[in-house]
Design a protein that fits this description.
There is one protein chain. The chain is α/β, with parallel strands linked by helices and 904 residues long. It is 47% helix and 12% strand. α15 packs parallel to α17, α21 packs across α25 and α24 crosses α25. Pfam families: Glycos_transf_1.
Length: 904
């Protein structure tokens, strides 16, 4: 579904367009090799219902065939799409071919045998053609060792093809490039176009096969003590390139395949069956691929069709079967949950009907016209999309593929908006908590589901003090259709892409070995906040400006209703948004998952960064699993400390939050922290992250705007003059920031400095409380960057009573303008402030008051500290910090990014 191009303001990347051009040139050359009138058209790789034992472990555990497609329907579809020879390559059997031959139908007998590569503990597929029933028995016996299997096919003159050479059904750490050296020796034919695999794999395979010179093959043979002749391979002949649809659903069969050249074809067909001529051409190697790679679009459609059928056809696999089957504990738990979900879904007729309609639409059959009159207004849109899908079937494969994938995206967006609209009413109806009145205590205490499944699905007649206040059976009544359908849409999209990239590390190594077609190295940086009124937004905005200035290989992505995309910035519109009023003006925006997946794919990104624990964290983990890419988390907030300062949760309840954070951070390949204390905490007993996965970083300063002049104290403080001592604080005015300690701090200091003033910039939930406790203070409200700069320049000492902040970006902002800072000796501040040099690090209120008095007691102290503040700010330059950041996430540095002085 990711065929759309990202063209907003220079964000389009060249990786996939370049692959497209390269492969199109190859296919054009292949189309000119043979005269069309002397070619037989064949799909060398397709399946029907006799592929009934899947390679995927979960399919075997759940007793699911790879397809329910009937042989008759497949044969009909192949003919409709122009195939002149029929073959069916089911897994490890040719039952469909034998059945067709028994009915007198000409068919090229074939199967896709799963063979074992002993030294790699790996199973590979081998397409094999032209065998007899007696030979099929022998082939199935010999497939336990791929060398024995291929020696036998060579001796019997049975042509074989290595399909999808870069795709394996398992991640195997033993796989290395020596495997491909052996494949070059033991195979003469390779499938370079597979209708269900992606363009990158196809181009890599093509370039590798075409690079196999006789010298290379003979060198590999000697290196691995293999004789090519044993496998029917002539090193001096070019490798034969083939194609097939790999269709399992009856949607794409015949759309990809091979032209088989037979000299004087028309005359030969008068005396010889087409299947025999096809076998002859395969043996000779007179083959030319045709068709188009579908990226993951075709596989996404196939899996959606498959999941739709699974939902309606799955039977209870049995608990003992799941428990006793081969596989990890997580595999079995996953299968148990999936089977329970699908079996529960089967009780809901509306959902089952929709899945049937999806299957029919993908086969080109429109929903009944009366259906529009029967469904509610909310679901008429879904019927319209299914009609579009069915109608597009007659417009050709490319139009069909594009229509389906756009419909999947649009359906997902529509259904999720519907879910968002209904969740609030579902919560109200069940007397649950309101979205606009969430509190940390409620979320933490209610974040639970019952372990008793009957209580979850059927209810136990009692009100639960957890998330099951809104019981699943109630949700299924109100939200089952949109939620479950969107789950299937997201699941098919994730699975189709994950299948293609489960061996991404191998693909990267392969491209590096070839020296071409290397995936672009770019990171997509997800965040829930960028231009909001908080410190995290300010620091992220600074990071984005540096990325834009230096054209670094990172692009930000945010969800916002009003902002527009810009260079290095994607903006997606929220499906819904709401405010958490208790925490000020911060909005929670729910993004469109499919849209972000599209941007990631089309943008040529190969890693993900997330810097907030909101909805974007869930999106980042989805992208991580979908594309099998490295993922990193940038920790801005210590939530355990946050709830300690803002809630009355006890230690056990806070531990629940800590465990949730530990589970979240462990899902990432690396976590960035802003202070040494957090690094020690994350790698210590409580969080248990590996030390080499926790990176210490910092926010960088932004250059001072020389056009801004200091503010006059008298302009904001009645009766003040240039000599009036003034404290300054700029932050979100909330309890966790320590602002309620300010009245006592100022009171103590004023005993020695009677004319001491304090100016407060910012807003927040504790603003009124602070005004009442500190009536003599000057409250300026929220200030923009220019206003803050003037205040830093014109006032005297920045006071920072927070013990909560992980860094303290405002400290650096103060330093940039020569304003020293006094703060508690904790977390972020202690890594920035050099005590008694550019500020003070203190232990309590009394010491903070004493140091304020000390600072204003001497002009020399003030002057020295101001100079040292400027010097410290200069040590937090953008280039060295961003340079280290890029290195830690594995990105190459631009040439212009030279080594700079690092942070002290």
């Amino acid at each position: 579904m990711f065929k759309e191009k990202v063209k907003d303001k220079g964000l389009e990347q060249s990786f996939r367009p370049a692959l497209n051009v390269e492969f199109d040139v190859f296919l054009q050359q292949q189309s000119l090799r043979f005269a069309p009138e002397n070619c037989l058209k064949i799909d060398l790789h397709c399946h029907d219902h006799n592929s009934d034992v899947p390679d995927e472990l979960w399919g075997r555990i759940l007793r699911l065939p790879e397809t329910w497609l009937k042989t008759k329907k497949l044969v009909k579809l192949l003919k409709e799409n122009g195939s002149q020879v029929t073959t069916i390559t089911n897994h490890n059997n040719a039952r469909s071919c034998w059945d067709l031959k028994a009915k007198g139908i000409d068919v090229l007998v074939a199967a896709e045998f799963t063979c074992f590569f002993p030294e790699y503990d790996l199973f590979i597929h081998v397409l094999t053609y032209g065998f007899s029933q007696e030979q099929e028995v022998i082939l199935n016996n010999k497939r336990q060792n791929v060398y024995d299997f291929l020696r036998y096919t060579a001796a019997e003159d049975l042509p074989v093809i290595m399909p999808h050479p870069l795709y394996f059904y398992t991640r195997n750490e033993k796989i290395d490039l020596s495997l491909f050296e052996k494949l070059a020796v033991i195979f003469a034919r390779f499938e370079v176009l597979n209708g269900q695999r992606d363009l990158w794999q196809s181009v890599l395979t093509l370039n590798w096969v075409q690079s196999l010179s006789p010298e290379k093959i003979l060198g590999y043979a000697k290196k691995h003590n293999l004789d090519p002749a044993d496998f029917g391979v002539d090193p001096h002949k070019p490798k034969v390139l083939t194609a097939g649809s790999d269709d399992h659903t009856g949607i794409f069969a015949g759309q990809c395949g091979s032209y088989l050249y037979i000299e004087n074809l028309a005359e030969r067909l008068k005396t010889t069956p087409a299947s025999e001529l096809a076998l002859e051409a395969l043996r000779k190697g007179d083959v030319a691929p045709f068709g188009q790679v579908g990226e993951n679009q075709k596989l996404n459609i196939a899996l959606l069709d498959y999941f739709s059928q699974v939902a309606t056809k799955i039977k209870d696999p049995g608990l003992f079967r799941i428990m006793l089957h081969r596989g990890s504990t997580w595999d079995k738990i996953g299968c148990f949950m999936v089977s329970n979900l699908l079996l529960e879904m089967q009780k809901h007729k509306k959902t089952m009907k929709f899945f049937s309609f999806v299957h029919d639409a993908l086969q080109g059959k429109k929903p009944n016209k009366l259906l529009k009159w029967q469904v509610s207004k909310d679901y008429k849109y879904c019927i319209n999309q299914l009609e579009k899908i069915a109608d597009s079937k007659k417009d050709g494969p490319e139009a069909f593929t594009e229509t389906v994938n756009l419909a999947i995206k649009d359906l997902f967006t529509h259904l999720n908006r519907l879910i968002a609209q209904r969740v609030e009413s579902a919560i109200k109806d069940n007397n649950g908590i309101r979205l606009d009145s969430f509190s940390t205590e409620e979320i933490t205490r209610k974040f639970e589901i019952p372990s008793q499944l009957t209580a979850l699905f059927l209810g136990d007649g009692k009100r639960q003090d957890n998330m099951s206040n809104i019981r699943v059976e109630k949700l299924l009544d109100n939200l089952s259709f949109p939620f479950l359908i969107s789950l299937i849409l997201a699941g098919s999209t994730l699975a189709s892409t994950r299948v293609l990239y489960q061996n991404r590390q191998l693909l990267n190594q392969f491209a590096q070995h070839l020296g071409k077609n290397q995936h672009s190295n770019r990171a997509l940086y997800l965040t829930d906040t960028l231009l909001d009124k908080n410190g995290v937004s300010a620091s992220l905005s600074g990071k984005l400006k540096e990325i834009q200035r230096a054209d670094l290989p990172v692009d930000f992505l945010i969800c916002h209703a009003d902002l527009d995309s810009a260079p290095h910035l994607h903006v997606v519109r929220p499906i819904t948004e709401f405010e958490v009023h208790r925490y000020g003006e911060q909005k929670i925006r729910i993004p469109d998952l499919m849209e972000i997946a599209t941007i990631f794919y089309d943008g040529g990104y190969d890693r993900i960064i997330c810097s907030t624990e909101g909805p974007m964290a869930a999106v980042s983990l989805f992208i991580q699993q979908m594309f099998n890419v490295p993922s990193y988390f940038f920790m801005h907030t210590d939530w355990v400390d946050f709830i300690k300062h803002t809630t009355d949760l006890n230690q056990h309840e806070r531990d629940r939050v800590r465990r949730l954070m530990r589970a979240l951070y462990n899902r990432y390949d690396g976590v960035f922290v802003l202070n040494s204390e957090h690094k020690e905490w994350l790698t210590g007993y409580e969080m248990q992250l590996e030390e080499d996965k926790v990176f210490l970083t910092a926010h960088h300063t932004q250059p001072r705007d020389l056009g801004i002049h200091k503010i006059s104290k008298a302009s904001i403080i009645p009766g003040a003059n240039n000599d009036t001592p003034v404290l300054f604080i700029a932050c979100r005015i909330s309890k966790e920031k320590g602002i309620l300690e300010l009245p006592e701090i100022v009171k103590r200091a004023k005993k020695h400095i009677p004319n001491l003033k304090i100016v407060v910039a910012g807003s927040g939930p504790a603003e009124q409380q602070l005004k009442q406790a500190l009536p003599e203070a000057i409250f300026l409200g929220w200030q923009d960057k220019k206003q803050l700069a003037a205040l830093y320049l014109g006032l005297d000492l920045f006071v920072f009573p927070s013990r909560f902040d992980t860094f303290g970006n405002v400290i650096l902002e103060a330093f940039v303008h020569g304003m020293p800072t006094i703060a508690y000796n904790c977390k972020g501040p202690k890594d920035i402030i050099q005590n008694n040099k550019n500020g003070y690090l203190v232990g309590d209120i009394a010491e903070m008051s004493d140091k304020i008095v000390e600072y204003f007691s001497s002009q020399n102290i003030q002057s020295n500290m101001q100079q040292h503040a400027l010097q410290r700010a200069a040590e937090y330059q953008a280039e060295p910090i961003m340079q280290q950041f890029l290195q830690d996430v594995g990105l190459e540095l631009p040439i212009m990014y030279n080594n700079q002085k690092t942070v002290a």
